[in-house]
Each structure stands twice: as structure tokens, then as C-alpha cells.
Amino acid sequence: MRPRVSVQDPALRSGDFSLRIEPVRSEDAGLYEAQVAYDTEVHSCQVELGIVTVTVSPPSPVVENEPLMLSCNSSHQASLLETCWFHKRHQVPTSRTCYSLHGALSILRPTVSDSGSWSCQLRYSDNEIISATYDLQILGFDGPTNPVVYAAAGSAAD
């Protein structure tokens, strides 16, 4: 896993034997075990790394008014009970243009205002709640509401 993995040597002296993985990949999911031997004592701990991903189809950036689907997947093994979606920290209500199906969120006519932070929250049968965030970019025209622009003859117009 090198060079994505590091251990902070100065922290070892104070008893912190944390492992840092950056960036985390899907294949990094699984059980990790740390063992530290000091004099005659051996201490160990196990940590399971679960992976959650948010993907968009078609891939970002998305063009305004073209349908898109956000999907949220996790490596957690329990039964998925509920998926909730949030846009800029506000829960997304179901509507004619935005609906959830099998945990995925479809947006039929996205606009530039739909850009930004989208989060999914997964709730499982073992009471585990997992969330992930995706920064969505939507390309579109963010011009004047009135399509008529007046300019003086001989001047520039934008």
C-alpha cells in the first residue's frame, strides 16, 4: 500500500500507533490489526475499515437539464433499511423531478442551483448509520432572468 500508508513516528512515543491511509481505495476495505510490543508486553487492536462511495451517472460535471442519478454504496454487511439524501445539509424531499429508487437518487432536470454538497445517509438493521458526501458540479447558463439586454450603440455588451 506504499506510498499511501504512513505511521506518525513521533506519536508512537505517546502510545498512538495509528495508521493513516491516503487516499483510501475500495480495495482497502477489511480488517486491520495492530500489534505493539513493549518490553515483555504485547498490545493489539483490530479495526475494520468499511468503504462508502457516492457516484454520479453520467460522471460529473453534469450539464444542466440532463437527467442524473446519484448512487450510494457501502461495504457494510447488514441489511440496508433506509437511504436518506441531503443537499447542502437539508433533507431532499421526493418530488416529480427528484425521487429515490433502491437507494439511488434521480434528478430529472438538474439546474445550476443543484450544484454543491450531496450526502447520503444509510441506516442498517444493526443500527449502524453510515454517510458519505459528493461535491456535484452542474454546468449551465446562470445569466439574467430577462433574455433582453440593452446596450448603447458603440459600446460593449455582455
Automatic annotation (TrEMBL):
<dbReference type="InterPro" id="IPR013783">
    <property type="entry name" value="Ig-like_fold"/>
</dbReference>
<dbReference type="GO" id="GO:0042289">
    <property type="term" value="F:MHC class II protein binding"/>
</dbReference>
<comment type="similarity">
    <text>Belongs to the LAG3 family.</text>
</comment>
<keyword id="KW-1064">Adaptive immunity</keyword>
<keyword id="KW-0732">Signal</keyword>
<dbReference type="InterPro" id="IPR007110">
    <property type="entry name" value="Ig-like_dom"/>
</dbReference>
<dbReference type="GO" id="GO:0002250">
    <property type="term" value="P:adaptive immune response"/>
</dbReference>
<dbReference type="InterPro" id="IPR013151">
    <property type="entry name" value="Immunoglobulin_dom"/>
</dbReference>
<keyword id="KW-0812">Transmembrane</keyword>
<keyword id="KW-0391">Immunity</keyword>
<keyword id="KW-1133">Transmembrane helix</keyword>
<keyword id="KW-0472">Membrane</keyword>
<dbReference type="GO" id="GO:0045121">
    <property type="term" value="C:membrane raft"/>
</dbReference>
<comment type="function">
    <text>May function as a ligand for MHC class II (MHC-II) on antigen-presenting cells (APC), promoting APC activation/maturation and driving Th1 immune response.</text>
</comment>
<dbReference type="GO" id="GO:0042110">
    <property type="term" value="P:T cell activation"/>
</dbReference>
<dbReference type="GO" id="GO:0005576">
    <property type="term" value="C:extracellular region"/>
</dbReference>
<keyword id="KW-0677">Repeat</keyword>
<keyword id="KW-0393">Immunoglobulin domain</keyword>
<keyword id="KW-1003">Cell membrane</keyword>
<dbReference type="GO" id="GO:0035723">
    <property type="term" value="P:interleukin-15-mediated signaling pathway"/>
</dbReference>
<comment type="function">
    <text>Lymphocyte activation gene 3 protein: Inhibitory receptor on antigen activated T-cells. Delivers inhibitory signals upon binding to ligands, such as FGL1. FGL1 constitutes a major ligand of LAG3 and is responsible for LAG3 T-cell inhibitory function. Following TCR engagement, LAG3 associates with CD3-TCR in the immunological synapse and directly inhibits T-cell activation. May inhibit antigen-specific T-cell activation in synergy with PDCD1/PD-1, possibly by acting as a coreceptor for PDCD1/PD-1.</text>
</comment>
<dbReference type="InterPro" id="IPR036179">
    <property type="entry name" value="Ig-like_dom_sf"/>
</dbReference>
<keyword id="KW-0325">Glycoprotein</keyword>
<keyword id="KW-1015">Disulfide bond</keyword>
<dbReference type="GO" id="GO:0070374">
    <property type="term" value="P:positive regulation of ERK1 and ERK2 cascade"/>
</dbReference>
<protein>
    <recommendedName>
        <fullName>Lymphocyte activation gene 3 protein</fullName>
    </recommendedName>
</protein>
<feature type="domain" description="Ig-like">
    <location>
        <begin position="50"/>
        <end position="131"/>
    </location>
</feature>
<dbReference type="GO" id="GO:1990782">
    <property type="term" value="F:protein tyrosine kinase binding"/>
</dbReference>
<keyword id="KW-0964">Secreted</keyword>
<dbReference type="Pfam" id="PF00047">
    <property type="entry name" value="ig"/>
</dbReference>
<comment type="subunit">
    <text>Interacts with MHC class II (MHC-II); selectively recognizes stable complexes of peptide and MHC-II. Interacts with FGL1 (via the Fibrinogen C-terminal domain).</text>
</comment>
<dbReference type="GO" id="GO:0009897">
    <property type="term" value="C:external side of plasma membrane"/>
</dbReference>
